Structures are given as C-alpha cells and as structure tokens.
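User: For a reading group we're discussing how well predicted structures match intuition. Take HTH tetR-type domain-containing protein. Before you show the prediction, I'll give you the sequence so everyone sees exactly what went in.
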Amino acid sequence: MKTKARPSIRQAHKDLTRARIAEAARQCFYEKGVSETSFEDIATAAGVRRATVYLHYANKSAILTELLSRNLEEVRLIYERLCGLGAYDIASVRKWLESYVRALVRHRQAMRLFQIAMATDDTVRVMIEDYRESVVRSLGQHFAAFAPGAGRAHAAAVLMVVKIDFVADAVAQPAPRLAATAALDLVAEELSAMLAEPVTAS
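Assistant: Thanks. Here is the predicted 3D structure of HTH tetR-type domain-containing protein, as structure tokens, for the group to look at:
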C-alpha cells in the first residue's frame, strides 16, 4: 500500500506564505474595501514583497474568490445539517435557522466581505449563484421540492435558498431592521412545507 507523500519543506513554506497573504488581504478588504486596497497594502500587511503577492495571486479578484470559497464551504455544511435533521416540522426547522444565524453572527466580518464583493466583483456574483445551485442540488437528493428540474419548481427552490440566506444575514446584523422573530417564523413555515415531501427511493 502506497503512503501519501509528505509535502516538502519548500511547499509547506509556500502554503504558509499564501495563507498569510490571504489573511492580510482579508483585513485590508475589511478596513479599506476591495477597490481601495492595493497589492502594496496587502504585501505590507503580510510582511512580504509585492512581487511575492503576485507569485501567489494574479489579482485581487483571485484572492477574494479564494477567501469567499472557504466561507461558502462552511455554509454548505450548515445546509448539510438541514438534510440530517430527521424531523422537519416548523419548530425543528426554526431551530436550524437559528443555528444558521448564530454561525453568521460568529462570522460577521466574513459576511461584510460578501456584501463588499457582491457589489464590486462579477466573478463573485457568479460564484454565489453557483453556490446556491449546488445547495439546491444537495437538498434535491433528499427533498422532492428541491429535486432536479426546470421552470417554476426550480425557480422556487433557488428563491427559497436566496430567502434563507437573506433573512439569516439580516437577522444576524447587530441592529437588524427585520423583525427577527416574525421573519424566522415565516421562513421556517415556508421551508418546513417544502421539506415535508422527501425524495422516494425508486
């Protein structure tokens, strides 16, 4: 049986440098915004030369995409927990929504980065659309309302994911404008109804 080769010291150093650059960029984006952040700013914050930043990333969009991909993967895992609830009554779905909101509160800065990116980067907008489609496909393996298809049914499934994300993000804000209890109740009722019909084995 072959053993997996260990990464070289050189590769490990490159990975650490890349991670340091990405985190430095994240902080710069938070503080200045994406458009106002330069590669020089990122290099200074990371403690590397500007040329080193270019060795790892072609442009700011590449850094932004990598950062947001990590966050989207965490959100996908939250939706996976929805698939494993076992009970899909309104109260159970409401508790899942509350857990989603708590996760967003813990990662509030990351959510800010999403909002900044959505307003400035077409690549990120496409990435988020792809993420929502992947969530629908994942839910479609378990629930008939999200099963693969087209037309109104598919549009309703995607819009449900958009609504969940929007309400959870709005409620997670320090001073939410939405009436949190009412908003979560409404989404829980609608989502519970959509999850009521599981996919039947053929």
